[in-house]
């Protein structure tokens, strides 16, 4: 039972729903009565440029589930790849992409989800495999349409000494799930999983992560921040598992949300599952409104209320954006956020 | 330091679970198994009115249609509900008028319980004994209720549930099942059908209950699940503090314990509910024989400015599965949850709380300290939610877990659901082991490793211990030490 098999069989009963613990706040079965017919093929040459095209050594386009399926990085090689996941129309489509980065390879994936106004159902599965001492930074900009339903599921396999850093930024969709599952081998491998959501209207976004520390000496840092307004709904589910024997694991998780209207909602489940004793694990979670004192201070200095709110919110989100390693991508991310906060 | 020394001596004096004994009293059993006739038997045995029997039968019907939940992080062999006794009452002699007439075996049991709670003196009728009202539950039936008179003068009703059903049917009908509905969950529903007895407390408007109320629950008959039902109502402006303490004898068959506790708090009233739970945890090597503690505890803060405080020290049971909760319905009502859960050996605990904010400016606070040692597993699972109407809701949650040993597990599973823009929720959780530096420091000063561990653990749980009433706090501190016996080294 999965989104992929639901798309293949067109059986809506295969979709995960609120009775499935992992999907309790992202109910697809209750939303989609009928799985749409397969999407039409797209003319890729007619598409506008993607947000990261100018920064990349190569641009891969997956349009309505069709297109490039593999990114390979040779030992010691270094490259920047833009990966565009494009959805158009009212159909359903699924794609599978594998990424193999060999020993000491370096890769920056600049991934964008680009939807139109259609009521599509899109699933993307990514399999990332990092060799020893490989380093990957994945930056995801999810700009789906208000009627689209998107599920992105990444599975990451790290080798000892590997570094994987991820920043997911999303403005949500009708329903959207951006999921990352990491098998962490310890052995001084280093993981950073960050997220930002900016949701308005009736949009929904679900950032779900699960990290399993399998052996000694692993580190994980997670920071997710988000803002919801109108009737939007954000979901954060973060799970860190430390297996028996995975001593000297250091894992931190933070999720902080601002609710800017009375009808918006934030649901969070930061989870720790620990089977080893020599570990240091912590999570923090806060949900609240903008600080009235700070707002008052800004207004006293002549900044109009809307502008003051945008400024404070930008500063709040800024902490996550600052952690993006790729400089040019970081600025694109910052501009993308600014547009959404002021737009 | 004196307390630590006392604790250490206490531990030294202990080799095995000291409450593991079985008092042989003639039992009045219902036949094994569960069906509508057993429900009728229990009801008839207790001379219940027709409406009560109807309520039970309705619950039983619903229970048949329900499925046993399996989402908790605990594992145990499937319970055969037909292989249990659902009613066992100590045989009554002709109306015992005073304690002297109470079955001496029963008094002996209290003696053996050994916990130097002064309730024993009260039970023994010692002059000048402190004023704790004791409603002792001995295998499902309240045997003796003391201080009833003094409580009656204050207008407080404190009696067994069966008595309340007879004497105060209007209160029972009004409030029973109003906090935990009959079909709330599988175990609560089972309880509604077969509950044996329990405590009933009603504190009238404006009355501050003149003494701490306390109850001993003790599972005694082999193979008899105990299903207490407790209902406490604090009317407008009332206050009551209720203590619940538990020990149970040792045996080999797993025992199911599915109690329901309902608290109703009206305007400006407050209930403080404290629990020390020390049921038999099962064999430390195999986990065999321990108690299953699947309890539903919930408080309904119906009135404005009402307050509930749950404090629990969970050291026993082979499996603990419970979430004392607060429904914060009244405006400006508040809920607190202070918990120490200790697991050792093969124990499993999945416990926490739910704070459901419905009213405006409601506040809640959660402090949970979990300690796992041996091969045990300890899970904090909690929910904090704010309804769109709960403007100004405020929650602070802190969950700390301490791991002692290589083979234990500690989990934290909080759920946070915020549905309005004017509430503020903060949650933090940490998982660590005992600091080696601190242990070293303590041992350098002449403490043995075990003593050093106890000292550090006592510090770790201090925030919760200080929420307990005095006499409970001392006992709880000892329990903490006993529970961790043999976990180091």
Describe the structure.
- The mean pLDDT of chain A is 94.
- Chain A has helices at 3-9, 292-300, 305-321, 327-342; strands spanning 58-63, 66-67, 70-73, 78-87, 92-101, 106-115, 121-130, 135-143, 149-158, 163-170, 175-184, 190-199, 204-213, 219-228, 233-242, 249-259, 265-274, 279-288.
- Chain A has one domain.
- Chain A is built from 4 helices and 18 strands.
- In chain A, 14% of the residues lie in helices and 47% in strands.
- Chain A has a 10-stranded mixed beta sheet, covered by helices on one side. In chain A, strands 3-5-7-9-11-13-15-17 form an 8-stranded parallel beta sheet.
- Chain A starts with a helix and ends with a helix.
- Chain A is mainly beta.
- Chain B is of the alpha/beta class.
- Chain B has one domain.
- Helices cover 25% and strands 34% of the residues of chain B.
- In chain B, helix 1 crosses helix 13, helix 3 packs antiparallel against helix 9 (186-194) and helix 7 (161-167) packs across helix 8 (169-175).
- Chain B starts with a helix and ends in a 6-residue tail after the last helix.
- The model of chain B is unreliable at 10-15, 91-97, 114-131 and 217-224 (pLDDT under 50).
- Chains A and B meet through strand 17 and strand 18 of A and strand 22, strand 23 and strand 24 of B.
- Strand 17 of chain A pairs antiparallel with strand 23 of chain B, so a sheet runs across the interface.
